[in-house]
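Structural biology now treats backbone shape like a language. To illustrate, our science desk offers a sequence and the tokens encoding its fold:
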Amino acid sequence: MDFIHPRAAAAVADLGARLGTKLVTNATVREQHSHDESWHRGPLPDAVVLAESKEDVQTAVSICAEHRVPMIPFGAGSGLEGQVIVMQGGVSIDTSRMTKIIAVRPADLDCTVEAGVTRQQLNVYLRDQGLFFPIDPGAEATLAGMAATRASGTNAVRYGTMREATLALEVVLPDGRMIKTGTRSRKSAAGYDLTRLFIGAEGTLGIITELTLRLYGIPEHMAVAVCNFANVQEAVATVVETLQCGVPMSRIELADTAQIEDINLYSKTSLVESPTLFLEFAGSPAAVAEQVETVKALAEAHGGSDFAWAKTEEDRRALWQARHNAAYASVARRPGCKLLATDACVPISRLVECITETQKDLANSIIRAPIVGHVGDGNFHLNVILDPNDPTEVEEGKRISKNLANRAIAMEGTCTGEHGIGIGKMSYLKHELGDAIDVMKGIKAALDPHNLMNPGKVFV
């Protein structure tokens, strides 16, 4: 086979000798590791390592480092900004087979898992212990991938993001060294916070092999409803006032009319096709009843109507699954097209303004881009669906994404609340962070002087 990277042949020979059948070079597997769920595309990796243990990862990294061949961490491939795409040739190191739940400690409300465990696998394992892991980005992502992209999701308004949920990591550095970044204690003043350094680094500083995570007790009582509004502005105003009143919502999600239309078609639901809030309340029965009355009053003041309640646990799960499938639902409307997903986040006091200006931008666009999002923490998405083979649509998609990113940054927000930078948002990072990006580059150079770990991502 022809290798993209000039030193790949020697590295692949050594990897094969050390890892045997865990080193794969066939075109089908390489193609599977050449992309994520976004519209971004790149060449195939020179080879794929299907790691089954942290020792496999360490071996693969050490050999690649010796030959100075790039390494690209890979989990479930569910990213949305091209983080797993090969930019300069090299070896894709897949940790999805590392699926051991090493320990669950109910008394301490924490657990330790291997990199390839997914959030759903962990929650199935925890269910009979009355515990759950709350970070819920929707996709069946690996927990290491979620940490690498600082994922959040529908529960973030109450439980935070992977930043808050992660106590410690085990990481293989670009030179093959393996380190632990922290302990199981709930706080520490011991040295630099290395755990947070690797969370959100998008695989550019090392490969996560193990995570120690916070767990929570399953709430005593939950209630889920949808509520309809005449327009997005009134729905978002309800969210802002709910948060300002201190109501401890578990989830509070928005979908505009276009997104509800897509959800109904894809998930065979019969939701009212108007701007809609998805609401979840949790706590004791008395606390939930109080929360519901407060939010109902706020919603009614903004024209909210038709509170439709999930009557059973099955109904509750189906409703949230329909919400989680929103992006897939929009893609399904245009077979053969791809998703350009944006995810701006602003202070909640600017949320109505940001969404209103975004709607104005979309009003005359040739592209359909439903709005959906975790508005409880000021985060919303445009599911921009485009034909990657149509230059006009690609340019329009980029224009919409750029305008939203600049709009959010101007409102003291961020160009990405949860998807990360990858290759899709590198041009916005300097605008958002200014000279701080030079500090990031300095950290990268110190840990990865030969730029071997996921090169070409986050910043140039």
Observations:
- Residues 101-217 form a domain with the Uridine Diphospho-n-acetylenolpyruvylglucosamine Reductase; domain 3 fold (CATH 3.30.465.10).
